């Protein structure tokens, strides 16, 4: 492969890896932005008159994904939350997301005062200390600067109203949830009209990424083929030929991956975990390398000669 | 003394695109003695000369029959055949198979990988074929004769036991053809055996033995054409 | 060598190229329609209100008995109306009264569904249809926003398609009030329809004058995302001073309802501006039972929502640029790959004696096939999308035509090169 073909190969790898990472970052940030504008509720959130309409025992057994919120002080900014499964990430600019298994933790806005103890930050409520694990808001100076989310569902009152934001909407809630639900979500979506743009951008973007990565793999295989064919004719074993051809490609892909992953992590900040960003940047590269190896093998040894 | 190579009852057929079966070889037998220096392989276009060379090079393992090289029956698996090819066989293809992206020296170096002092062996091979000092020249700037010499240099750099050449002078003028044949002679003197597929009467005459592929088998040609 | 011969073996690449470019055009179309609606979202209720501080105005008459007694006197009511007039008409520059009140409006024989009911989607409970003693028929309490022209203009509200309220025709004594309906009412009522309403215990006719555009919104009671899609928008008259004599009960309630307002003060005004304006109005009118609340969250909310809209827009543009780059690179690869195969055939055809104009026609046919195919696929996909924007569609079709023209020019140049030159080492 000459320098021009090498450069083209690296550019293609970088382009589709960046596209995959870009679409993933976009989806994450868009979702966080929408949640921030909607008081952390998605467009399908519903309000239930009381927690009692839900069958709690069934709720514990049903594998739902989403969150339940209950206002603790009537202001709408001090809430208890229950995380179910692995929902869309909340808009945070520091720290980490709440997991379904976390107990006694809090996410708070930038302006909320905390108590320091042994290098960790806590917020106290009803005699209980909640460990602060992150800061709400895509940016520090956001509309969530005064918000507090506590994760300890024992604080929730059976008679209090609950906002349920789960995948599948009200129908997915056990008990009489579906009958008693009123929609509350969608405010920022109304401002940004992202409900119809985003799915198209994300779906087609990923389709282009996967098709493009595969096509790049085939193209690169074409660049590698003359040398690989010669090595085979000179008496090298097939595995050796394949390895010698694909290994440099994999190394370049590794370099591209590190660069793209780094940029993706920097742009999405605390919103996206490192493994998730790595997957988005890495999948197109892995696909390119695998398709390249496959295409090379087929072109050299696929047909009976 | 053990023969250099033996083919026993070599049988091969291929399925054409229209579904019909075409017989290439039918119980073909061939022996090349270890003292034999060169064999010309003749036959009409499409008779199977190139296919036979591919079988001998270990590039084609889809046949019935037996291929014995220096007393060892070669398994019909591509990887052991690759080992055989790497160790014993030099190949000069009809289209030279040079890599346009590389220089003369780099092209020959591919054939020298795994050898001791590959750069030195490369220079020696280029000297043998009369291309000393041309190592840095891009292959795209070579004449037909020069390109053929580079392909031969790459084939002989590892000093193979057997060199298989497919129409080595097909695209060359008479004078250049003569130069190539002289080169082959000198290589034979040095101990390399040749099997050359050719249409050229001059090349056939320069070989010590002539066989032709006819009716899916090999026939000896006693007299020079 | 005709177009079909040239295309042989490259159909897959042709189809792939059409699909890749169709996707690019579709995403571009989406982004263009989206950016237009983003600009609308920002200018709608955002532009002017960016430069003000907000204060909440209300009355201090919290005791219901005292409140009732105060309204029994027409003189007292006129104090309130003149107080309103002084703020509305005589306030100094930079101080604006934005009167708005979301009182539930009982509507008889209501044709809409429960989403329009007052309290739906909020903390309050929804009351179903009930018998209204004033109208003597079944009514539904619907969401309503009563507001002044100043408020309407401040939040850049306007009727759709130029069909708007005639503020000059707002005369409560006429018995019919022109109203606007939120965009959610489209299909429920039409322009010209009449609603019978219990307006502060007074049977009133309201005539539908038009509809607000979708997602029309305003800042109300600390909420910057107060959308009016499901609301009945009732205009206040410019002044009701002089009217209370004719219907003391109705105008007594209305006068105090109109005092529910925000006061927007330009940021370059001194802090005392709002107090000075209120003091002056109180002196003129004789009404001083007002209270002022500051609304500190207004600017924060405004800034963060505007940032959200812009952030989101910036994100979409970034991703669109990446998609465009990837699509164009892929298209170039596919074109180059197909061209290499065709070039050799063209050269052979030329050497065999085929004329250049014949070959040119074959090349033109291929380009036409590619770009007409692209246009057809693009139109088919966008037809299925929920957002329809003919201007954006036209823009994309023009781009397709330009791409096609550029491609044709490049292929013609390539053809000229191909018939003049032959590769090295070929006889």
Q: What are the main properties of this structure?
A:
heterotrimer, A: 305 residues, alpha+beta, 11-stranded mixed sheet, elongated, C: 427 residues, 2 domains, 9-stranded mixed sheet, 3-stranded antiparallel sheet, 14 strands
Explain what the structure shows.
In chain A, 48% of the residues lie in helices and 18% in strands. Chain A is built from 6 helices and 11 strands. In chain A, helix 1 runs parallel beside helix 5, helix 1 runs antiparallel to helix 6 and helix 5 runs antiparallel to helix 6. The radius of gyration of chain A is 25 Å and the shape is elongated. Chain B has a single domain, classed as 3-Layer(aba) Sandwich (Rossmann fold). Chain B is globular and about 50 Å long. The model of chain B has no long low-confidence stretch (mean pLDDT 90). Chain C is of the alpha+beta class and 427 residues long. Chain C folds into 2 domains: 156 residues, no CATH class; 228 residues, no CATH class. In chain C, helix 2 runs antiparallel to helix 10, helix 8 runs parallel beside helix 10 and helix 9 packs antiparallel against helix 10. The model of chain C has no long low-confidence stretch (mean pLDDT 84). Chains in contact: A-B, A-C. Chains A and C meet through helix 1, helix 3 and helix 4 of A and helix 2 and helix 8 of C.
Secondary-structure blueprint:
The complex is a heterotrimer of chains A (305), B (225) and C (427).
Chain A: H1 3-37, E1 46-48, H2 56-61, E2 66-71, E3 78-84, E4 92-95, E5 105-108, E6 115-117, E7 120-125, E8 128-136, E9 148-151, E10 162-166, E11 181-183, H3 187-192, H4 194-233, H5 238-268, H6 274-302
Parallel strand pairs in A: 3-9, 5-8
Antiparallel strand pairs in A: 1-10, 1-11, 2-3, 2-10, 4-8, 5-9, 6-7, 7-8
Chain B: E1 5-15, E2 21-32, E3 38-42, H1 49-57, E4 64-69, E5 72-73, H2 78-88, E6 89-92, H3 104-112, H4 118-128, H5 144-156, E7 162-166, H6 174-189, E8 193-197, H7 201-206, E9 209-214, E10 217-220
Chain C: H1 3-7, H2 11-46, E1 52-59, H3 64-71, H4 74-90, E2 95-101, E3 105-108, E4 130-132, E5 137-142, E6 144-147, H5 149-154, E7 176-181, E8 194-199, E9 202-211, E10 217-220, E11 223-227, E12 232-235, H6 248-259, E13 261-266, H7 273-285, E14 290-294, H8 297-351, H9 356-384, H10 390-420
Parallel strand pairs in C: 6-12, 7-9
Antiparallel strand pairs in C: 1-13, 1-14, 2-6, 2-13, 3-5, 4-5, 7-12, 8-9, 10-11
Helix pairs in contact in C: 2-8, 2-9, 2-10, 4-6, 4-7, 8-10, 9-10
């Amino acid at each position: 492969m000459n320098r021009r073909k090498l450069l083209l190969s690296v550019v293609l790898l970088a382009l589709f890896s960046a596209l995959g990472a870009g679409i993933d970052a976009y989806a994450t940030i868009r979702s966080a932005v929408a949640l921030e504008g909607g008081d952390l509720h998605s467009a399908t959130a519903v309000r239930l008159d009381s927690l009692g309409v839900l069958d709690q025992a069934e709720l514990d057994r049903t594998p739902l994904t989403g969150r339940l919120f209950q206002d603790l002080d009537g202001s709408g900014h001090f809430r208890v939350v229950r995380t179910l499964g692995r929902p869309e990430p909340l808009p945070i600019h520091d720290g980490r997301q709440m997991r379904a298994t976390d107990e006694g933790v809090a996410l708070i806005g930038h302006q909320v005062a905390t108590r320091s103890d042994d290098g960790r930050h806590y917020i106290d409520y009803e005699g209980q200390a909640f460990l602060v694990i992150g800061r709400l808001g895509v940016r520090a100076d956001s509309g969530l600067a005064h918000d507090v989310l506590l994760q300890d569902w024992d604080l929730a009152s059976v008679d209090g109203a609950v906002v349920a934001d789960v995948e599948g909407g009200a129908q997915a809630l056990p008990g009489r949830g579906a009958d008693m639900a009123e929609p509350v979500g969608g405010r920022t979506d109304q401002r940004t009209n992202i409900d119809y743009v985003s799915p198209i951008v994300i779906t087609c973007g990923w389709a282009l990424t996967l098709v493009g990565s595969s096509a790049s793999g085939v193209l690169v295989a074409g660049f590698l083929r003359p040398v690989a064919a010669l090595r085979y004719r000179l008496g090298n074993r097939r595995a050796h030929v394949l390895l010698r051809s694909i290994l440099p490609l994999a190394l370049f892909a590794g370099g591209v991956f590190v660069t793209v992953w780094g940029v993706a992590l920097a742009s999405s900040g605390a919103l996206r975990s490192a493994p998730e960003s790595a997957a988005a940047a890495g999948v197109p590269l892995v696909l390119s390398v695998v398709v390249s190896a496959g295409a090379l093998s087929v072109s050299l040894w696929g047909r009976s000669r | 003394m053990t023969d250099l190579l033996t083919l026993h009852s070599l049988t091969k057929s291929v399925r054409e695109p229209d579904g019909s079966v075409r017989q290439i070889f039918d119980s073909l037998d061939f022996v090349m003695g270890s003292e034999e220096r060169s064999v010309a392989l003749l036959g009409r276009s499409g008779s199977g000369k190139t296919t036979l060379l591919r079988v001998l090079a270990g590039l084609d393992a889809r046949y019935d029959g037996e291929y014995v090289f220096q007393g060892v029956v070669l398994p019909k698996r591509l990887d052991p055949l690759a080992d055989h090819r790497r160790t014993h066989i030099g190949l000069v293809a009809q289209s030279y198979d040079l890599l346009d992206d590389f220089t003369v020296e780099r092209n020959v170096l591919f054939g020298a990988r795994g050898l001791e002092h590959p750069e030195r062996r490369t220079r020696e091979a280029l000297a043998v074929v009369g291309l000393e000092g041309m190592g840095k020249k891009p292959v795209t700037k070579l004449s037909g004769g020069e390109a053929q010499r580079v392909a031969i240099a790459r084939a002989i750099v590892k000093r193979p036991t057997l060199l298989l050449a497919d129409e080595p002078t097909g695209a060359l003028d008479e004078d250049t053809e003569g130069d190539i044949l002289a080169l082959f002679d000198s290589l034979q003197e040095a101990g390399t055996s040749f099997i050359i597929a050719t249409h050229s009467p001059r090349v056939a005459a320069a070989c010590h033995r002539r066989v032709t592929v006819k009716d899916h088998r090999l026939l000896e040609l006693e007299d020079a054409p | 060598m005709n177009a079909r011969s040239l295309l042989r073996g490259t159909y897959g690449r042709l189809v792939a190229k059409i699909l890749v470019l169709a996707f690019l055009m579709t995403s571009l179309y989406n982004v263009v329609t989206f950016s237009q609606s983003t600009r609308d979202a920002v200018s709608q209720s955002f532009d002017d209100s960016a430069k003000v501080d907000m204060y909440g105005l209300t009355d201090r008459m919290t005791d219901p008995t005292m409140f009732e007694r105060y309204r029994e006197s027409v003189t007292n009511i006129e104090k309130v109306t003149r107080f309103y007039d002084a703020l509305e008409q005589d306030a100094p520059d930079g101080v604006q009264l934005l009167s708005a009140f979301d009182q539930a409006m009982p509507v008889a024989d209501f044709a809409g569904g429960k989403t329009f009911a007052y309290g739906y989607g909020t903390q309050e409970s929804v009351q179903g249809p009930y018998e209204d003693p004033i109208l003597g028929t079944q009514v539904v309490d619907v969401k309503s926003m009563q507001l002044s022209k100043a408020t309407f203009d401040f939040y850049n509200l306007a009727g759709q398609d130029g069909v708007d309220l005639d503020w000059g025709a707002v005369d409560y004594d006429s018995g019919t009030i022109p109203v606007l309906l939120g965009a959610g009412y489209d299909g429920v009522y039409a322009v010209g329809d009449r609603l019978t309403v219990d307006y502060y215990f007074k049977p009133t006719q309201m005539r539908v004058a038009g509809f607000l555009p979708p997602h029309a919104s305003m800042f109300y009671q600390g909420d910057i995302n107060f959308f009016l899609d499901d609301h009945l928008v009732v205009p206040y008259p410019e002044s009701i001073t002089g009217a209370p004599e004719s219907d003391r009960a109705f105008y007594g309630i209305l006068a105090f309802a109109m005092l529910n307002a925000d006061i927007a003060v330009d940021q370059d005004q001194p802090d005392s501006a709002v107090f000075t304006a209120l003091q002056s109005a109180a002196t003129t009118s004789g009404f001083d039972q007002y209270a002022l609340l500051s609304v500190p969250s207004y600017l924060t909310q405004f800034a963060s929502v505007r940032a959200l809209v812009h952030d989101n827009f910036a994100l979409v543009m970034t991703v669109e640029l990446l998609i465009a780059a990837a699509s164009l690179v892929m298209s170039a690869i596919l074109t180059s790959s197909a061209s290499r195969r065709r070039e050799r055939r063209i050269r052979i055809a030329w050497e065999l004696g085929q004329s250049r104009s014949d070959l040119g026609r074959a090349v033109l046919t291929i380009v036409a096939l590619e770009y007409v195919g692209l246009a057809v696929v693009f139109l088919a996909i966008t037809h299925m999308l929920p957002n329809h924007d003919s201007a954006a569609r036209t823009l994309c079709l023009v781009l397709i035509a330009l791409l096609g023209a550029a491609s044709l020019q490049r292929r013609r140049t390539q053809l000229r090169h191909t018939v003049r030159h032959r590769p090295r080492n070929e006889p």
